[in-house]
Amino acid sequence: MKQKIRIARGVVWHPVGHTHWVAALPGRDKREKCLLLDQSKVDFLERISASQELPFDTLKGPEKDIASKWLTPEFRLLEEVNEGLSPKFHERLAFAIFEEYQSAGRFENEHNLALYHQDEINDPFRQFEQVETTVSHLYRDPHPALDGKNYGTAFADILLEAGAVRAGHKILEVGCGTGIFGREFLREVKNRMPSIYKSLSYTFFDASPVLSKSQEKLNKEHGNIVTFVTGDVQTHAFLEDAFDLVIANEMIADLPVEKFMKTDTNGDLQAVEALELASRFGLDFSDAPPRFVLNTGALKFLEKIQHTLKPKGSAYITEYGSLYSYAKARTITDHTEFTIHFGHLLTASQGLGFEASVQTLIEFLHFAGDLKVLDDQTHHALFGHLMPFLGMEGDAVRIYTQDMFSDIYPELAEKTRNLVFVRLDSLGGIIYPSDFYSLRLEKK
Amino acid sequence: MVCFFDFNLIDITASDCKMKGFKKNPKVVAREAEGEYFLIPVGENPKDIKKILRLNQLGWFIWKRIDETKELDQLVSLICKAFDVGSETAHRDAQQFLRRLMKSGALISVKESQ
Description:
The structure holds two protein chains of two kinds. By secondary structure, chain A is of the alpha/beta class. In chain A, 37% of the residues lie in helices and 23% in strands. In chain A, the strands form six sheets. In chain A, strands 7, 8, 9, 10, 13, 16, 17 and 20 form an eight-stranded mixed beta sheet that branches. In chain A, a hairpin with a 3-residue loop joins strand 2 (12-16) and strand 3. By secondary structure, chain B is of the alpha+beta class. A three-stranded antiparallel beta sheet of chain B has the order 2-3-4. Chain B has a two-stranded antiparallel ribbon with strand order 1-5.
C-alpha cells in the first residue's frame, strides 16, 4: 500500500501558451525530461505541492490513476514519502566503504589521470564549465555566499589575515585552472596591500600547456610578478626551500592513485609497496576494505611541498574528500578522479614534520552555510531541460540565490512553479563546498 | 554455512582458552569515524552491508587487540589495566563481546575460513 506521495525532488513546471504547461524533471540521462500537461493536470500537481504530502489513499478515480502513472520510473513526477529512510550516519558510512571497495574494483579501466590533464584539455573554459566544474569556478564572480567576494578574493583575504602573504614572498600555485583564481587572488593582495603586492613573485605551475596559456593570457595585468611553468609536479625538480607559500586549489584529486589488496587470508596487508607507504607516511591501513585505493600522488606531493617550502612557509591544499574515507571513484564527464582521504593527508603531513590542520572548506573560506540557494535537482531540471525546451540560454555554472535568480531570469522566477531553494551547506557532492576540505601546512 | 555458535571450535568460557580458533573476517571493515567505532561488512553487492555493529570503547579496544592476543586471560589483563575494572567483569565483558562478534560474522573460525 502506498502511504504518502509528494512532488519528486527537482520537478518544476512552467506555462506554455494559454492552456498548457511543461513539466521538467532533473537528471542527466538521455531520456525525455519534459512533459506537456494540460491545466487540469497542473491543478492536481499544484494541489499536491500545496499540501506538500498527500495520503495516496485519499485520491479517487482519475486522480488515483494519474498519480499511479506519475509515480512510475517512466514519469517520476511524484515520489513516495519514505519516512525513516533518510540514511543515518552509520548507513552512509557503510555505503561509503562499499564505494571504496567498488572503486578499487573498477580501477583497471580508468584513464591515466596525469596524461589526461597533460594532453586532453583543449579548451580551458569548456573544461571548467562543461567537463569538470570546480567550486572556485562556480564562485568566480562576487557571491553573497562569500560575503560579496569571489573565491580567489576570499582565499586571499584568509591568507592575508593569517600572515601567510608577506613582503618579498615567493608563491607557488600548482594546478591553476583557467588562471582566474590566481588573478583574483593577486588583485585582492594588490587592493589591500599594494606594497606587498609589488614585492611578490607568483608562479603558476600546470601540467596542461593549454591551461598554462590561459593563465598567462588572464594574468597580463600582473606584469612581471607572475611566471608560468608547464610541467609534471610529480617529476619536476623544484628547488629546495624556494617558496614561502604553496597553494593547490582543487588539484590533488588529479594526481595518481594506486590500488592495493589485503591479500593474505587474515586480511593483513601484504603488498610491499603499501607497507612501504604505510611506514613512510605513518599510516595505518587496518581500517581499509579488502581492496582499496590510496591517494599516493597526493601523499607524495606533500613530500614535494616539504622539500620546496622554506622553513616557516605555509601551504594550503583544498579538495573534495573526507576525513575518514579511502579514495572513491568519481566519474566526471570524460574521466574519473578519486576523492581524497584527508585523514591520511593530515597524518602524513604531521609525520613529515609539518604543523598541520584540516578544516571544511565552508569553515576555511567562511562560506555562509545557511544561505538559501537553488536546490541542485531543481537546477538540473531548469538548466538541463526546461530552459532548452523554452529556447532560453542560461548560465548553469553558477550557484543561484533567490535574488540572483530573479534578477537574471525574471520571467522564469515569476512563472515557473516549485522552484526550491535550500541551505547551501545541505548540498553535497563534487561541486558543493560542504564536501570539500582545506589542509593547512606550516613547515617548522 | 558457518555456525558462529560452534563452541567446540573454541571454548571462550575457559579462562585458559586459546584465542587461536577464530580470526577477524577479512570482509569486515573496522572504521573510526566522527568519534564512533563501527564494524561494517563489505562485498560485491550493496546488500552485503547487512549488519553494522557500532562498538563502544571497550569493544574497539578488544577488536584492535584480537590479532596480537593469544590467550583470553592476556586480553582480560589488558582490559583490566586500560579500563580500571576487576578481572571478573573484564572476563565476562570480553567473553560476551567475542560471542557477539562470532554471531554477527565479524569473527570467523579458522577452520571454516580454510
